[in-house]
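Hey,
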Amino acid sequence: MTEITAVRGFKDILPDQTQIWRLVEDKARDLARRFGYLELRVPILERTELFARGIGDTTDIVEKEMYTMEDRSGDKITLRPEATAGMVRAVLENNLAEGGRPLRLFCLGPMFRYERPQKGRQRQFHQLDVEVFGDPGPYIDAEVICLLSSFLTELGLTEVSVLLNSLGCPKCRPLYREKLTAFLRARQADLCPDCLSRLERNPLRILDCKVESCQALTADGPDMAECLCPECQAHLAGVTRALADLGLPYALSSRLVRGLDYYARTTFEIHSGRLGAQSAMAGGGRYDGLCRQLGGPDLPGIGFAVGLERVILALTQVKEFAFPGPDYYLAALAPETLGPAFVLAHKLRARGLAVEADWEAGSLKSRLKRADRLRAAKVIMLGPDELARNEVTIRDLATKEQITRSLSDLDKF
């Protein structure tokens, strides 16, 4: 019978990797607490319409990458390709933004896109998603960029850089779109087929094309900064001033656009020197029109998403991880000691200690090797002689010192 393997682009996270994952997730939750962000858990499945309206039906995500199906009722549903649209829906549906104060939220979990699997990028991937609703000012933009930068640097990633741009607003973006369209029409013979289609529907998407010839073609295109209205100019200046006040380095990039249609004004990415050509690790921006686009009030928002696979890939290139093992490895050295050892392990675990054991008798040599492989701090040895004296022998694997303790005196373990 043929062996069943994982679906292409869907990877197991094995036990020797999960401790790194927990370290990264714990750092995310710790920073969220320090910055005042509350956790929101949204469903993995949403109505397809949410992403078509929220992300934009001309984006590659909606056109090519979503896992969409019909349920038994005939409704079209989609595995979430990103979290922002679902978080906005949850905020609107549950009236979470009432009260007039900014609402700070974060979400951790898997997302799904039908992309070509490659190193650090799978079809099921995991993201930390951070969103703020109800604050239109530049300081909150700087705050979320600072949170993202802190998340990466506190994990140990020092080779990171912040790219920043403004996409303008409905007042000034039409002028830029007009200039960009005219520039591209004069060169449309050199555009890839996807960008030819984007030229008619959403020319800004061409700036996000990954085809090298299209990237080279748009390098000399019009600059969005030259088209910004006074309000957008002031907003961008406020963000850059706040980042400078924090001493957080950044670089302005007029070509930086986000792959989703709901962004406006501030947009940003963080890149890592550890990831080579595919260096983008995280990105986000402001989306002041998204809540209204999804049927809610005119509620400003800003956020980012960071891919945990790419963070972990970069981390493992920076340093090696050696996580501590259990407090004790309990070695039962004879068949008659298995029962007492089983009870002892349970009592020690009830006291909050981590205890590992194998429930078959084995030689002392084999059990010490097993304890070393587990990176246990100490070994509890229970053989026939110790059992007769109602004692155990405890060996510290670092110092090699041994002591004896009574089986009934657990306070001294």
